[in-house]
Design a protein that fits this description.
The chain is of the alpha+beta class. It is built from one helix and five strands, in the order βββαββ. It has one domain. Strands 1, 2, 3, 4 and 5 form a five-stranded antiparallel sheet that branches. The longest helix is centred in the middle third of the chain and has 21 residues. The protein is globular.
């Protein structure tokens, strides 16, 4: 099962995922990215600090597979 990395990025910062998660395929990685985006948005709302950010998903060769805006978790 391939490993994917979920980096949280904005214009101001980047939190690099050094461990990654095993996901069956890109669709499973999208599901994990949505779960993580939801968690980050929840934390931002709790601290009343919502920033324009995204989750950058990379494959095990650290190539970008997709970029998911955090606001996508609100839908």
């Amino acid at each position: 099962m391939p490993r994917y990395y979920f980096n949280i990025c904005s214009e101001e910062f980047e939190e690099t995922d050094l461990v990654g998660e095993h996901c069956a395929d890109d669709l499973a990685a999208l599901k994990e990215a949505l779960r993580q985006a939801s968690s980050v948005v929840e934390q931002q709302l709790f601290f009343n600090k919502v920033v324009d950010a995204w989750i950058e998903v990379e494959d095990e060769d650290h190539r970008e597979v997709m970029r998911l805006p955090l606001r996508a978790a609100a839908y």
